[in-house]
Amino acid sequence: MVATDLKSEVKKLMEKRSALETEMNVIIDRLCQPGGPGLSGNLVDSEGFPRSDIDIPVVRADRQRLAGLRNDHKDITEKISKNIELLHSSSSPKSSTAMGSGSNSPGVVGISSSMSVMDVNVSRPFAMVDEISEESPAAEDGLQLGDQIVKFGKVEYGDNLLPKLASEAQMNQGLPVPMLVMRQGALINLDVTPRTWRGRGLLGFLVAGCVLCVYLELMELMVSCWLQKPHKHNNVDLDRIFQLLCGKGVLLHLKKLTFEAVVASDAAIGTSIGVEGF
């Protein structure tokens, strides 16, 4: 009875989180539309006056709402994780023998002592193009507002990203740098050449702070299967992947990405590629 209640609670939380993600995406699209202020762009012009091309109260309201949604999303994800752990612990005695012996019983998914846990490689964007200057190298080479940066040369998701990005651009000045971005859910390959131009930096765009990635464990996918509800994210049918992996008798910690908007004050969040020497 407890397991049934937990499943029902997890289902409701998943539906609520999905609704939050939908609203977040709508706000992000609105803020990042061409000519828009982006997630962190300045609301004043170069002379310090309020920008006349945007509705500043609406922009501030959107950013504030986005910050609230982000916090709610984090809380719900933590609740889902806790409930999944409870579900997992309630079913673990049935499969402990199989797990300990290194063999799998029919219908039970286990990991032998000699079998390592596999990872599914998922492209992980680490920053979003928040502003891009017209006639800049980045714009001329195909980069667009709202593009999520997955890879720039040798730089991928990790620590100290902005210094690495700046260094990569400086070392490759005048040379094409392969760049992988996610645009409207699709991965796009670009060749961007860092070079001097009439504006700041070598590329001429701003990035919002690193996008936060939320990892959801395999047990969440199992709950989705139990609920007999297809659970899709970023056009990937995770239930189908899970079923295929179960057929091979392998437990995976499948990585799913849920992008959260990083919202802070106008001065704190946007990092200029030009200021960073990028």
UniProtKB/TrEMBL annotation:
<keyword id="KW-0175">Coiled coil</keyword>
<protein>
    <recommendedName>
        <fullName>PDZ domain-containing protein</fullName>
    </recommendedName>
</protein>
<dbReference type="InterPro" id="IPR035269">
    <property type="entry name" value="PSMD9"/>
</dbReference>
<dbReference type="InterPro" id="IPR040815">
    <property type="entry name" value="Nas2_N"/>
</dbReference>
<feature type="coiled-coil region">
    <location>
        <begin position="3"/>
        <end position="30"/>
    </location>
</feature>
<feature type="domain" description="PDZ">
    <location>
        <begin position="107"/>
        <end position="185"/>
    </location>
</feature>
<dbReference type="GO" id="GO:0070682">
    <property type="term" value="P:proteasome regulatory particle assembly"/>
</dbReference>
<dbReference type="Pfam" id="PF18265">
    <property type="entry name" value="Nas2_N"/>
</dbReference>
<dbReference type="GO" id="GO:0005737">
    <property type="term" value="C:cytoplasm"/>
</dbReference>
<dbReference type="InterPro" id="IPR036034">
    <property type="entry name" value="PDZ_sf"/>
</dbReference>
<keyword id="KW-0143">Chaperone</keyword>
<dbReference type="GO" id="GO:0005634">
    <property type="term" value="C:nucleus"/>
</dbReference>
<dbReference type="InterPro" id="IPR001478">
    <property type="entry name" value="PDZ"/>
</dbReference>
